[in-house]
Amino acid sequence: MIRKIGLWLVIALMVFDGRPSSGNSMELTGAGATFPYPLYNEMFSSYRRQFGLLVHYKALGSSEGIGRILKKEIDFAASDAFLTEPERKMAREAVVHIPTCLGAVVIIYNLPSNPPLRFTPDLLADIFLGKIQKWSDPRITAVNQRQSLPDMPITLVHRKDGSGTTFILSEYLSKVSKEWREKVGTGKLLKWPIGQSAKHNPGVAGLVQQISGAIGYVELTYALGNDLTMGEIRNKSGRYIRPGVESVTLAAQTALPADTGISLTDTPALEGYPLTSFTWLIVYREQNYNGRWREQAEELVKLLWWIIHEGQRYTKPLQYAPLPDEAVQKAEALIKTITYKGHKLWP
User: Fold this and answer.
1) Domain boundary among 276, 297, 323
2) How many domains does the chain have?
3) Is residue 20 part of a domain?
4) Are residues 158 and 139 part of one domain?
5) In angstroms, rounded to a whole number, what is the distance separating the alpha carbons of residues 280 and 156?
6) Distance between CA atoms of 70 and 236, rounded to whole angstroms?
7) Same domain, 49 and 139
8) Sign of the torsion angle spanned by Cα atoms 177, 181, 183, 186
9) Virtual torsion, Cα 175, 269, 40, 90, nearest 10 deg
């Protein structure tokens, strides 16, 4: 009898050790950027329908996602910015950044009748620095001569949480404004000179909608989804560019490094939108950590491969730009470097 109980216990441990015994009962978890959340939500839902894999994703902001992957609490982090050198040191082990799409940060505002407006780089920097405080300021009217602008205070709305969206905007402003670079700088979480704060892209979009005279910044999809008015921005070539899939795609017409870590803000592309960026999923190159199973690592690699190939069909309908061919090739090479106990996972 004791031998029978022992045998059944061994069988039970083999079956219920947490590994999928049959079918796909595995789950993956990720957290991070709100920037690509609508796209990831659609991708992960489609992937589950096709392959049965449940992917839990929490849009908590890039900083939170990075913090969790550095603690090895999740399978992947999503970020609109590459890991910084201090963050890489905290990781202690090699990570890879897999680009998933191109997106844009847009300038949104709320004015009576919402006239179409244009912004120069220096104009944007001085608005966000608080140096321009009224919509009737001569510097704004000078580049918007066809519009009748109200004598109304400007209310700046910015992100409260650590955000890749903030990183993209601040990186751009640091490139075009020496004063911004010296006083505020580039980062996912900033000490803003002025303004009101809100969490995540939906929070900023909602606050701008509520406040007459407000200006803020969100990801392109949120602006379109909330019917917010977006400004045109003068790019490096001197052309005023409206954000959209086409102008975002054109911004990426440049050579990419092997790790895909490139800044596309203030792009030199003639018709490129200047507040464009890749967004990435970040994973550890060696997947054997914290008791992870090989099956988990295999499922993660399959998911990443699907995202950069079949998953790209979901980009344009949601106003994201698909990966250029060169980015796909670079991403493939990076995925092929992911290992489990030193053995490559992609055949």
Assistant:
1) 276
2) 2
3) no
4) yes
5) 28
6) 36
7) no
8) positive
9) -40
| pLDDT recorded at residue 164 | 86
Q: Which residue has the tokens 């640091």?
A: 174
Cα–Cα dist 179/228, whole Å: 29
C-beta separation of 318 from 126 below 8 A? no
How many Å separate Cα 262 from the centre of its chain? 14
CB-based contacts of 142, cutoff 8 Å, min separation 6: none
Inside any domain, residue 70: yes
Residues 6+ apart with CB under 8 A from 323: 99, 100, 101, 102, 308, 312, 331
What is the pTM assigned to this prediction? 0.85
Name the residue with tokens 């940060």.
Answer: 105
pLDDT at 127: 98
Report mean pLDDT in 10-residue bins for the chain, 347 residues.
Answer: 41 36 70 92 97 96 93 95 91 96 96 96 97 97 95 96 92 98 95 94 91 95 88 97 95 92 94 96 96 95 98 95 95 98 92
**DSSP string spanning 113-171?**
T----EE-HHHHHHHHTTS--BTT-HHHHHT-TTS---S-B-EEEEESS--HHHHHHHH
Q: What are the tokens at 116? A: 């179409």
Which pLDDT score, from 0 to 100, does residue 24 have? 52
Beta bridge partners of 196: 157
Q: Please check whether residues 90 and 119 belong to one and the same domain.
A: no
User: Within this chain, do residues 132 and 210 fall inside the same structural domain, yes or no?
Assistant: yes
Residue 84 lies in domain: 27-102+277-344
Q: Which of 249, 276, 303 is the last residue of a domain?
A: 276
Q: Is residue 233 part of a domain?
A: yes
Residue 57 sits in the same domain as residue 201? no
Among candidates 222, 231, 267, which has minimal Cα distance to 248?
Answer: 267
Q: And the tokens for 61? A: 């902001």
Q: What is the pLDDT of residue 14?
A: 35
* pLDDT of 11: 34
Asked if residue 5 belongs to a domain, the reply is no
